[in-house]
Amino acid sequence: MIAYRSLRVALLGGGSVGAQVARSLLEDRDELAHRVGASLDLIGIAVRDVDAKRSVDLPRELLTTDAERLILGADVVIELMGGIEPARTYILQALNSGADVVTGNKALLATHGPELFAAAEQVGAQLYYEAAVGGAIPIIRPLRESLAGDRVKRILGIVNGTTNYILDRMDTQGDSLEDALATAQELGLAEANPSADVDGYDAAQKAAILASLAFHTEVSVDDVHREGITAVTAAQIASAAHSGHVVKLLAICERLIDPDTGVEGVSVRVYPAMVPRSHPLAAVHGANNAVFVEAESAGALMFYGAGAGGVETSSAVLGDLVSLARRHVVGGPGLTESKHAGLPVLEIGKATTRYAVTLDVIDEPGVLATIAGVFAEHGVSVETVEQSVATAAPGGESTAILVIGTHGAREAALAATVADLAANRVVARVASVLRVEGA
């Protein structure tokens, strides 16, 4: 048996992911030692309640409520507690004590990332966070290392499994949003309070992390335009299917030239959008995640897989652990975060996109010309128009349904067009507005 040096590993959090990481460290200890060139010794697991029921039967002697004691005795700290505090304090304490850190805490990184990375750089420590975006999908390391010499132009991502499951059920099973959400909750894919998922907060945090890495620019979650899926209806899903599209909640990060100043910036936004069924993201079903990256030299790349789950996400955590543990063996400084570009984050109104607008209009001569005039007034080009047969409302005017698809235009111009349509006499109702991405 080869004699290896020992690295002391402290684990903060014994939930679904933490328990699986602990299991692997204990059961695969010899194999991991061979891969690293050092023994990874789990010295303790900090939990809120040592008596709580867990998905894995963990040795009781490893469980403790004294996180600070564990941190001060560790070479590597794995933070899987979630939330902002006390996770932020513990990670800073670990870094300042000289320990390297692995975390999957997307909320913390999206709000306090610069502070944590600065602390790591100051002491030459490593901060790895593959599990923060996409669960088991390797996306952080490709952006941080593999594509570091390339120029990433755009990222389209399905980064929240709960919303993808809900929208997929609505598309494939004909469920309403409420029924699909209820099923997701029954399966444990959605929390009792699903706001973080369905309102887009989770996806926005991940978008901030991806944009910061891809564009070498500091992007916080407050910079991300966010819309959730709570307003998506079965009628919108059916209309999208009719036109050869599927609705997905997308995280979009892209380089843009500010149309007003000519200066390059970045746009970071999260919203439900129609995606052509021919696009690879349209084939992402269930609770899976996928990130579609467009780079100048590498071209189009797609990373796909399980976006959550204790066993699956533990793979990303352990991958980070092995990588940073190898540095302990060979020596040298840790990876630093590059924010040299310092690009401005542009408001959503400066992004270019396309709309699919569904209108209930009064059935009278000249309506199409009036509608077309509103689009033209704002410089928005109409690509497609589909009109239904007029129907008479009891005691009222007959109306028809117009579904209008636009060419690409500035978001501000498209939004102003919809606002003017809503106020126009010939428009009884703006029934639906969805963006179109990936075409």
TrEMBL record:
NADP keyword on record: yes
Keywords: Amino-acid biosynthesis, Methionine biosynthesis, NADP, Oxidoreductase, Sodium, Threonine biosynthesis
MF annotations from Gene Ontology: homoserine dehydrogenase activity
Top EC group: oxidoreductase
Highest taxon, organism lineage: Bacteria
Sequence ranges assigned to domain ACT in this UniProt record: 356-435
Cofactor: a metal cation
Annotated InterPro entries: ACT-like_dom_sf, ACT_dom, Asp/hSer_DH_NAD-bd, HDH, HDH_cat, HDH_CS, NAD(P)-bd_dom_sf
Pathway it works in: Amino-acid biosynthesis; L-threonine biosynthesis; L-threonine from L-aspartate: step 3/5; Amino-acid biosynthesis; L-methionine biosynthesis via de novo pathway; L-homoserine from L-aspartate: step 3/3
The keyword S-adenosyl-L-methionine belongs to this UniProt entry's keyword annotation: no
Pfam families tied to this protein: ACT (PF01842), Homoserine_dh (PF00742), NAD_binding_3 (PF03447)
EC number(s) on file: 1.1.1.3
Listed Gene3D superfamilies: 3.30.70.260, Dihydrodipicolinate Reductase, domain 2, NAD(P)-binding Rossmann-like Domain
Stated family: Belongs to the homoserine dehydrogenase family.
Function summary: Catalyzes the conversion of L-aspartate-beta-semialdehyde (L-Asa) to L-homoserine (L-Hse), the third step in the biosynthesis of threonine and methionine from aspartate.
PANTHER family xref list: HOMOSERINE DEHYDROGENASE
Protein name: Homoserine dehydrogenase
Source organism: Leifsonia stereocauli
